[in-house]
Amino acid sequence: MAREVARLIRRSLFVLLINLVVLTAATAADGSVTVDEVLSETGARLQWDAARQVGVFWKGYTRVSFRYGTGYAVVNDRDIMPLVSTLGPDGTLVFDASSAAALRERLIPQADRERRRISAIFIDPGHGGRDPGTIGRHKVGGELLEIQEKDIVLDVSLRLRELLQASFPDRDIVMSRKDDVYLTLEQRTDLANAIHTDVNESVLFVSIHANASLNSRASGVEVWYLTPEFRRSGLIDAERVGVSDSEVLSILNTMREEEITIESVLLARNILSSIYSEVGNQSPNRGLKKEAWYVVREAKMPSVLVELGFVTNREEALRLADKHYLQRLAHGIYNGIVQFISGFEE
What we know:
- The chain has two domains: 2-107, Copper amine oxidase-like, N-terminal domain (Copper Amine Oxidase, Chain A, domain 1, 2-Layer Sandwich); 117-345, Aminopeptidase.
- Helix content is 38%, strand content 25%.
- It has ten helices and 16 strands.
- The protein has helices at 2-12, 35-42, 97-107, 149-167, 185-193, 238-241, 246-279, 294-297, 314-320, 323-345, and strands at 33-34, 45-49, 54-59, 62-67, 72-75, 79-82, 85-87, 93-95, 117-125, 135-140, 143-148, 172-175, 201-211, 221-225, 285-290, 303-310.
- It is elongated.
- The two termini are 20 Å apart.
- Residues 1-29 have low confidence and may be disordered.
């Protein structure tokens, strides 16, 4: 796990996901409060993107997102609160007294606060119908073995749905397709974005694919997330948060974008690690990758794209034609989702 985190930091230079440990903290003479003191008093965690200076406080079912220097924070994607922060001499975040008090009020659990939860999981088996996706053709025992991406990913997706339904009967497990039909990329993301969520609820988007390469020796599992530089619009519902100011909405939209990116990275990391635990003795871990694939850039929720392996590699194609191996892949994705939900809802 530590090796995977180090690789993510080195390769993307994008985000530092920090669980801050409280060492010592003191209140300044002017009444300002260090971030360590806020964390100590509330028991919250802070995830901090040093490059973009965006942070998210997590405690129970409450999430407070802020960008340094804006003077605003957004609570659970709907409430705006003033938040004034500065950087101390050692680079530590410092909040003025009123902002620290507001953070304490939000982060210390209250009995009547709504529960933060994943209410639905959207599974998207890639391709289908007239679009077979990648195709692997190999000679096995003198006969031709042909496997098509659309069949592999549907098989794994159906197995994944069964596992999730058994563990989460109180959540919606939705599939973009359940059989061999063709869907456009727009239809897939429209279906996911149309899932209704109540306040404090979120949806996970998992798109499942198989890989191909001109290099027949290429093999292994990859998990992709949206490149952090990409910017979506319409992530924040103006009516829902009660804001009409376009500048404030833009700030909130950017904060939500950063949150979704962090959540997507965490989801991707959990899934990749869990798949590797299942099949790492047979298929190499090719790491986390980032790209603006349509299905992840148009999904307004934490979203990842899983590549199960290379149909163009003979040995891997044989594994992908094995139902027992596909069950292990499904179980790996399932375990990663469960781990993410456990951390998201704690």
